[in-house]
């Protein structure tokens, strides 16, 4: 792995290290969100009156951050709150499901290895509930093997966020996925 720095919006790697496919995925998500916002504005369906994509993405989001690792969970929550998002935290899938029943969320960031209900089972449980199935779910994990990514996609995850995180890229990616309807 080699370190790279890019100043292109949406083109840098989330974690600050180059991994094949991540940059292309971010560019794809950025373009998808931009096209959706532009088409909604053109059709008069959207609340976006021709303003830039950044203005359309500057919405206040409510995000569930769920991970067994408390310092990681709190670090992510702090970064999202600093970006103006409302954050709810849970340490496993069981707590996460209870929070989703109590309050609507715009997006979910989840770990995989958790007690009681693991991340994969949690994703499947969310996707089975009609009122929750369209919420974008991003997986936060150290390991990024093709098998784990495929399993997460099959369960219904919208994307994979490798650790460690670059908090600015995390916020940007989350906003792009939500704006693109990545559920």
TrEMBL record:
<dbReference type="Pfam" id="PF00072">
    <property type="entry name" value="Response_reg"/>
</dbReference>
<dbReference type="InterPro" id="IPR050595">
    <property type="entry name" value="Bact_response_regulator"/>
</dbReference>
<protein>
    <recommendedName>
        <fullName>Response regulatory domain-containing protein</fullName>
    </recommendedName>
</protein>
<dbReference type="InterPro" id="IPR001789">
    <property type="entry name" value="Sig_transdc_resp-reg_receiver"/>
</dbReference>
<dbReference type="GO" id="GO:0000160">
    <property type="term" value="P:phosphorelay signal transduction system"/>
</dbReference>
<dbReference type="InterPro" id="IPR011006">
    <property type="entry name" value="CheY-like_superfamily"/>
</dbReference>
<feature type="domain" description="Response regulatory">
    <location>
        <begin position="62"/>
        <end position="178"/>
    </location>
</feature>
<keyword id="KW-0597">Phosphoprotein</keyword>
């Amino acid at each position: 792995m080699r370190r790279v720095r890019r100043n292109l919006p949406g083109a840098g790697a989330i974690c600050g290290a180059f991994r094949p496919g991540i940059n292309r995925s971010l560019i794809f998500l950025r373009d998808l969100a931009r096209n959706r916002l532009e088409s909604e504005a053109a059709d008069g369906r959207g609340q976006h009156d021709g303003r830039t994509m950044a203005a359309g993405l500057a919405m206040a989001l409510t995000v569930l951050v769920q991970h067994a690792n408390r310092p990681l969970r709190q670090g992510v929550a702090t970064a999202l709150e600093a970006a103006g998002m409302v954050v709810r935290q849970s340490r496993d899938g069981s707590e996460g499901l209870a929070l989703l029943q109590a309050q609507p969320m715009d997006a979910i960031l989840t770990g995989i290895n958790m007690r009681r209900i693991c991340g994969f089972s949690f994703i499947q449980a969310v996707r089975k509930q009609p009122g929750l199935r369209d919420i974008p779910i991003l997986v936060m994990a150290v390991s990024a093997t093709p098998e784990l990514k495929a399993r997460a996609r099959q369960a219904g995850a919208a994307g994979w966020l490798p650790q460690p995180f670059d908090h600015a890229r995390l916020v940007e990616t989350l906003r792009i996925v939500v704006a693109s309807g990545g559920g």
